[in-house]
Amino acid sequence: MLDTVVRGGWVVDGTGADRRRADLGIVDGRIVALGDVDDEAAHTIDADGRVVAPGFIDVHTHLDAQPFWDGTLSPSPLHGVTSVVGGNCGFSIAPLSDDPADGEYLMRMLARVEGMPLEALQEGVPWNWRTTAEYLDAIEPHLAVNAGYKVGHSALRRVVMHEECTGREATPDELAAMCDLLRSGLAAGALGFSSSWSRTHNDADGHMVPSRYAHRDELIELCRVVGEFPGTGIEFLPMAGQHEDWAVELMTDMSLAAGGRQLNWNVLTVTARNLDDARHRMRSGPYAAERGARVVALTVPVTFGLRMSFATGFILDALPGWEEAMLLPREAKKRLLADPEQRRRLEQQAQQDSPFRGLAKWETQVIFDTFAPENDGYSGRTVGDVAAELDKEPFDALVDIALADDLLTSFGREDPFQSREDWEARIGVWRDEHVVVGASDAGAHLDMFGTFNFTTRLIEGAVREHGLIDLEEAVHLLTAKQADLYGLVDRGRITEGAHADLVVFDEHSIGSDPLSLRADLPGGAARLYAGSTGISDVLCAGVPVVSGGDFTDARPGRVLRSGTDTR
């Protein structure tokens, strides 16, 4: 007697091989039969005419806190995701110390740098663990899908160095203590170590996040600890907007220090316009391979449609001369923006040459959300259009609108670079052996962008709309390739004995709903959200977590632990 049988679907198994019509029999969370399955089952899913694929894998998320208030990890499973990896960018919420100030610092840092509402972190997360082992045990009962976590460098520094984690290098004793904490976390099953030198990563006090104060030698020593544990890896952000030779050499040395374990760096965005630059940044892969290391670029298959605001200032603080202004309390920030001289200074500095200069093309920015009655009618229009109507310069028009909205106005670019030429450029990059599709950032920047739907949008854009790759290749890019990056055992492919993590969908209608704001976070804050089209069923360990396109109450997910679930 089978627990579940999935009948009559077209099996796209994740390997890239041609589809075949087959039934799947499931017992105790594993696929035990594949082909013509006549056995009776307690539960039957009719997949006739639909595709049955391995559950999609998202290897770069910030879903570290959300499971405590939303174990479904919504909306990711609605887009076919059955396994996620968190603890990225050096930001984990374990370990903690006995000093409440350290936990408070991590909360405020996440609120600032990853766009997680502070109220949600305060009200929705218990913060009652100390070790990584205790955190993993605390999170597991909540999970509808599988989740693995790395140990973040900034958390290690804060726990060991406390308030001195920003501002100086670690002493030898402090580095030894960090190594011991990392070793303990990896022994408990953490998937690896993460760190960041990204210039966009600043804490709530305006300082660089702790990992940015680390000397090169500190990174190398922590990576040596990773090499002590099988099935682990490294994630790292070099300085955003840069990929100079020193960064390529550093990432190679970090991988070598860990015994040649994979290091994935984030994030490679690809358009037809920047393809030459993207390929230049990809040189880290072959450079590392020639030296016995493994360095892999994570690329998001869609571009980030950023929604920025002067209230948070995130990303805007990367403009030359803007950091101090964007970190001011809101009332002080409003006074500064209302001052004509300060406004002119910011505008002039924004136009200076920098990797973020494109943000300052104010006339091209789209206004998304407004709140004041006098701003009615501006949503959905470009700043340039509204500025012409108001007879103002674009920057002045945008700032005046924001001031009327208490700085809450959201603006940016929605779905840029979606032409056939852009998709062709991306596909060539996806096929590179040193590139893996991922980098969704699900769980972070909740009101800024929504790339948690990259799985459905990849199939919708590259397969359905433009016909540039076949479905079998698309599924491979979303399943086996990610599983192999992290060494996930018996996941990412449909074969007898594999975990029954599955997604069932209509290949002719799979896609994403439009993004919209949903105020459902603890404390009442809003986030960007989108359901999917065409996905009927998602199974984790053989148990439906999505049925008929809606979430069930089942929680069959597990924590993915290194050495047990990875190799």
UniProtKB/TrEMBL annotation:
Which InterPro entries does the UniProt record give?
Answer: Amidohydro_3, Metal-dep_hydrolase_composite, Metal_Hydrolase, Metallo-dep_Hydrolases_sf
Give me the Gene Ontology terms describing cellular component: cytosol
Q: A single Gene Ontology molecular function, please?
A: hydrolase activity, acting on carbon-nitrogen (but not peptide) bonds, in cyclic amides
- SUPFAM superfamilies the record matches: Composite domain of metallo-dependent hydrolases (SSF51338), Metallo-dependent hydrolases (SSF51556)
Where is each Amidohydrolase domain found?
A: 44-519
Q: What is this protein called?
A: Amidohydrolase 3 domain-containing protein
